[in-house]
Amino acid sequence: MWNIEEFTEAAGITVGELAAYVAGSQRGEAPVLRRTPPRELAERLGLRDLIAKGGLTPGTYRDFLRTFLEEGTRLHHPGFLAHQTASPDFPAALADFVHGATNNPMAVYEMGAAAATVEFEVLRWMLGKVGFAAGGGVLTHGGSLANLTALLAARARAVPDAWDDGVPGDLVILAPPAAHYSIARAVSILGLGQRSLIPLETDGLGRIDPARLPDISGKRVMALVASACATGTGLHDDLRAIGAWCSERGVWFHVDAAHGASALLSDRHAHLLDGVELADSVIWDAHKMLRTSSLAAAVLVRREADLDAAFKQEASYLFYGDQGFDLINRTVECTKAELGLKIFLNLAWRGERGLGEYVAGRYDTARRFWELARDRPGFTVPYEPESNIVCFRHGDGDQAAIRERLMRDGSFHLSSTELGGVRHLRITVMSPATDDRTLTSLLDEIEAL
Questions:
Q1: Rounded distance, CA 150 to CA 133, Å?
Q2: For residue 102, what are the CA distances in angstroms to 110, 113, 240, 338?
Q3: Is 341 helix (H, G, I), strand (E, B) or coil?
């Protein structure tokens, strides 16, 4: 039995400490990240004793939580510019709190009717945004699972007997080298093997060149994968041209829009997804630009029956009778968190317009960084950004060493990637706290280093 008084006290402590953590992070008062070695950090947190003996109380919990938060990475910090991970809004955090207490694994409808119904409506909204009026969908724990699920649907379309008979050796998947690594993982998980992943011709920045799509006569193409936008650069493939090519040849067209689909909420940026409605499947991560905490990723298909065909399962303790509202037949996961609630509460609080303004604001900040870096001697930027991701270099030295110094000091958290075999620094603007002063300070600090 819960001790309700103890829970109420501990919950109040949690809210207070998190509020202070987020407020301080937004002001940039603490280092954006710390990387204390695990052995030292485990001792500081008292992990071994607590695991062995228990005995945490609201008072000692406050001390534990404060240290735990101090040693994490602050995604609300203006200097957090590293990865495509949301600076989560508080409504999504409330949803995580609710799920933590109620624990309704709603892939089976009877285990969480309210949570399942919320997911149905969120998916209906997302399907409408990508132009799949008669489509179907499901939320999964992350974009990697979403890509795998979409490609399972593509496999079922290409080879309906593959679930029972295995995968024939002549299937291929077409994708650019810049595709998210989860595509290559999915190919091997699906049993095709890496040799079946055929790289598409691209321009110098890794975008698919529609004029050089391959001759596929004599090949059994299971799917073509395009990006909106590419993880490394934030640049978009020409979805309309690629979609038309796939339609003419009967090729399953999959769009990895994990990061970029949220641009559909911005009037100024929705054109970047022009042609997405031609896809057979699309993935869209809410835990990137819809400001939900990890994880909440949508698999969306143009024809609902395609998603239902992706899995064929037998389990007498789960699958029996009329279970028309269950989602378990569409996912890898058996136990699935109340993912839709996070997306719904952000929408319910901010509305489409508010989330669209957030997306547009981050894209504008990235463009501002591009302008500042472009105009400053010593910096090179290889392209004009299309999203909130910008790649750049300073000088001809070791860019990874610059990143390491910034992270060691805790002032900024950047990532890096290779373009044309050359290492570049990379920023992804996620926090609303990142402003012109932040961007100028980053350039100044890189120059000083």
A1: 18
A2: 14, 12, 43, 10
A3: helix
- Taken in order 398, 402, 407, 413, the sign of the CA dihedral is negative
From CA 79, how far away is CA 64, in angstroms rounded? 25
Q: What residue segments make up the domains of the chain, in order of their start? A: 4-30+34-72, 97-346, 351-448
Look up residue 376 and give its amino acid. R
What three-state secondary structure class fits 27? helix
Coil, strand or helix at 324: coil
From first to last of its 449 residues, the chain has per-residue pLDDT tens of: 999 999 999 999 999 999 999 999 999 999 999 999 999 999 999 999 999 999 999 999 999 999 999 999 999 999 999 999 999 999 999 999 999 999 999 999 999 999 999 999 999 999 999 999 999 999 999 999 999 999 999 999 999 999 999 999 999 999 999 999 999 999 999 999 999 999 999 999 999 999 999 999 989 999 999 999 999 999 999 999 999 999 999 999 999 999 999 999 999 999 999 999 999 999 999 999 999 999 999 999 999 999 999 998 777 767 776 667 888 889 999 899 999 999 999 999 999 999 999 999 999 999 999 999 999 999 999 999 999 999 999 999 999 999 999 999 899 999 999 999 999 999 999 999 999 999 999 999 999 98
d(CA 222, CA 312): 19
Q: Residue 183: exposed, middle, or buried by beta-carbon count in 10 A (0-12, 13-18, 19+)?
A: buried
Structurally, what CATH architecture does the domain formed by 97-346 represent?
Answer: 3-Layer(aba) Sandwich (3.40)
Q: Domain 351-448 is in which class?
A: alpha beta
Please give the radius of gyration of the chain, using alpha carbons only, rounded to the nearest integer. Answer: 23
Q: How far apart are CA 413 and CA 126, in angstroms?
A: 31
Report CA 139 to chain centroid distance, whole Å: 12
What is d(CA 310, CA 370) in angstroms, rounded to the nearest whole number?
42
Neighbours of 51 (CB within 10 A): 9
Cα–Cα distance list, 46 to 4, 13, 35, 84, 392 (Å) = 26, 19, 17, 31, 42
User: What is the C-alpha to C-alpha distance for residues 371 and 260, in angstroms, rounded to an integer?
Assistant: 21
